[in-house]
Structure formats: structure tokens, C-alpha cells
Specification:
heterodimer; A: Pyruvate Kinase, Chain: A, domain 1; B: mainly beta; globular
């Protein structure tokens, strides 16, 4: 059995670790709240935009000439992996890297063989994780989260959309963690480009789309302006989701770590008390036998 | 009297009852007053002028956007 001093030092070190993890949990909880607020703030904008888009495009008889529409061949692929900058959040980042590798080896196997798949990495962990697997990252945005606003995010989205419109890529896929609730993140890969055809909603939005709107300048022009904007919103939403999911994942991970530390301390204390009791018993035994020897 | 909301992807910029709004439309600046016909229009970079019901006038600088107005409810989506 380890001696008393060793156990005491271990208890102290586990205790300080526990303090750190529980503090990190608190910080993550606060940041999660902020990230969730950002998602909620963005929602009215996104909803209105897609409402206008569906109502306008359902009024249009012909398809609008759209540079973000689908192409016949899917020769060149771009995968955008969205992770965080920091670790200590469970499988959060690892899952994104894993899914990206999976996409490379399964879904886009043909294109990968011909070296036609590029990867954009958002967040330091994606860069590190993919590099360690020997996957080349074309472009990375490591200090992306330092000043993240809609303006900076839409700038990146615009570059991606431009290179799609140019024909540099025929398919753009997003890989990120979708925020479900504080404890659950869904890893998703989502088609970013080409834009999916817009399905007119039949159900509730009918009352508003029945109004005869005036369109300035024309329906076509409005659709052409809204589509890039809604793409940027989709991209922004993916980023916000990933940020919220990161804090959720870290909160859960730190909560578990705190619990584990608690359990460890309990066990160590038990051992410590056992050792202490053993040494006391020993001492008494020595005293008693010593006294007996004197008597005899 | 109309109800106006000015929304950006990051926050709600303005919400309240207004008398008049002046917007930088793509084919020139225009105003919306009460009982305007339903309209959807693209906005260019410029200034939005809002006159509230208590005659306070405020201005918003925008980089372009979109306006939808119907039934005296106006929603301005700005970038």
C-alpha cells in the first residue's frame, strides 16, 4: 500500500484538477448561452428570407438562370470541415475529421483518386487532425474565430461561391456538428452547393403569398439577389451551430471530468483512511507488545 | 401607422410603430406610408430614414438588403 504522504499529494492534485474542470464547465455554460442567443437572433432573418424566396420563386413560372445551380458532372469536389480552435471537448473535433476521411474514401472515392477533392479547414483542430491523417488541406482559416461576425463569415462564403460559379468546383459539402441541445450534437454533412431546387410550401405560407405583391425591380432579379444571400445565411448558420455545439460538447466533457475527479477523490480518501488506520493499529500493537515485554 | 422591423443576421436593429420609412430602392429612393400596396423590393447601399409615431427621426446606414411590406407590416432585411 502506498504511503500516506503519496496519497495526500495525489488527493491534492486531483482536487485542483477538479477545480479547473469545473471552472471550465462554467465558462462553457456561459459561452453556450451566448452562442445559443446568436442562433436565436439569426432565426427571424433566415426565416423571412426563405419565406420571401419560396413565395417569389413559386410565383415564377420559368426557372431562373442561376449560376449556383447544379451541373451534370460532379468532377471537382470541395469539402469544408468546420471544427473548433480548442480541444478538451470530447469527440467533437475528431468526429468531423473522421467524417471528412470517410467522405474521401467512400462518397467521393472516384474524385479523390483523380486528386479532384479539395479540403477547406475552418478551425485549428481540423487542420491538425487532417494533417495527422496525411490529408492535404488546401486552404485553412486558423484564426477565424477571433473576430467572427456575419461580415467575415459571408466573405468566406462569397469566396467559396465565386469559385463554384467559376467552375473551380462542381459540388461543395459542409461537414460540421449541428447543435441539438447542450448535451447532444449531431454530426452532419450537408450539401452547400449546388443549391437545392426550391420547393414551394403548400401549407401555411399560402395566405401571405396570395397577396399580389409589387416587385421591384422584377421577380427574377429578386430571386437572383436572394439566392446568394440565403447561401451565406446557410453557411453562417452552420458556423453558429458548430460554435454552440462546441461549447455544449465541452460542457458535457468537463462535467464528466469533474464527476470522475470526484469519484477518484472518494477512492483515494478511502485508501488514505485505510492506510492511516493500519499505521495506527501498528503503532498500538508495538506499544502493547513493548509494554508486555517490560512486564514479563 | 405601420409596424416596422429592421433585421440583420446578427440582431434586431429596430422594432416599433412608425409613420413613414424612406428606403434606398434599386431604382431610386422611395417612401412607404400607411396602406401602401404590398411590395417586395431590393435595396441598394444607402440610408434608411424612419419617422416614428412620436416624430422622432432615425437613420440606418445599410449595405443593401430587402424589404417586404404588406398589411402595414414592414420587414427590412439588411446585410
Amino acid at each position: 500500500m502506498a504511503n500516506l504522504k503519496d496519497i495526500r499529494t495525489r488527493i491534492a492534485s486531483v482536487k485542483s484538477t477538479q477545480q479547473v474542470t469545473s471552472a471550465m464547465k462554467m465558462v462553457s455554460a456561459a459561452k453556450l448561452r451566448k452562442a445559443q442567443d446568436a442562433i436565436i437572433q439569426m432565426r427571424p432573418y433566415a426565416e423571412k428570407l426563405s419565406e420571401i424566396l419560396t413565395s417569389v420563386s413559386s410565383n415564377l413560372s420559368s426557372d431562373v438562370d442561376n449560376k449556383y445551380a447544379g451541373r451534370k458532372t460532379e468532377g471537382k469536389i470541395l469539402i469544408i470541415a468546420i471544427t473548433s480552435n480548442r480541444g478538451l471537448c470530447g469527440g467533437f473535433n475528431l468526429n468531423v475529421v473522421k467524417r471528412t476521411t470517410e467522405l474521401l474514401t467512400v462518397n467521393f472515392k472516384e474524385q479523390a483518386k483523380k486528386n479532384n477533392v479539395d479540403i477547406f479547414a475552418i478551425g485549428k483542430k481540423a487542420v491538425d487532425g487532417l494533417k495527422s491523417k496525411g490529408i492535404k488541406v488546401a486552404i485553412s482559416y486558423p484564426d477565424f474565430y477571433d473576430k467572427m461576425t456575419f461580415a467575415t463569415v459571408s466573405e468566406i462564403a462569397q469566396t467559396i461561391m465565386d469559385s463554384y460559379a467559376h467552375g473551380d468546383y462542381d459540388h461543395v459539402e459542409l461537414v460540421y456538428n449541428q447543435f441539438k441541445n447542450a448535451a447532444v450534437q449531431n454530426l452532419v454533412n450537408e450539401q452547400f452547393l449546388p443549391v437545392k431546387p426550391i420547393k414551394p410550401e403548400i401549407s401555411k405560407s399560402k395566405s401571405s403569398s396570395n397577396l399580389s405583391y409589387l416587385f421591384e425591380p422584377s421577380m427574377q432579379d429578386i430571386v437572383v439577389t436572394i439566392i446568394p444571400q440565403s447561401l451565406k445565411i446557410q453557411f453562417f448558420k452552420a458556423i453558429l451551430d458548430s460554435v454552440a455545439a462546441e461549447h455544449g460538447a465541452r460542457m458535457t466533457a468537463m462535467h464528466k471530468a469533474t464527476d470522475n475527479a470526484f469519484e477518484l477523490i472518494r477512492e483515494l480518501k478511502l485508501n488514505y483512511n485505510k492506510a492511516r488506520q493500519a499505521s495506527i493499529t501498528n503503532e498500538i500493537l508495538e506499544i502493547v507488545s513493548g509494554a508486555n515485554a517490560m512486564k514479563g | 401607422m405601420m409596424y416596422l422591423e429592421i433585421i440583420t443576421p446578427e440582431k434586431l436593429l429596430f422594432a416599433g410603430e412608425i409613420k413613414l420609412i424612406k428606403l434606398p430602392g434599386i431604382s431610386g429612393s422611395f417612401e412607404i406610408m400607411t396602406n401602401h400596396a404590398p411590395i417586395i423590393s431590393i435595396l441598394t447601399p444607402g440610408k434608411i430614414k424612419v419617422r416614428e409615431t412620436n416624430d422622432i427621426v432615425s437613420y440606418f446606414e445599410i449595405n443593401g438588403g430587402l424589404v417586404e411590406a404588406s398589411n402595414n407590416k414592414i420587414k427590412v432585411l439588411v446585410d
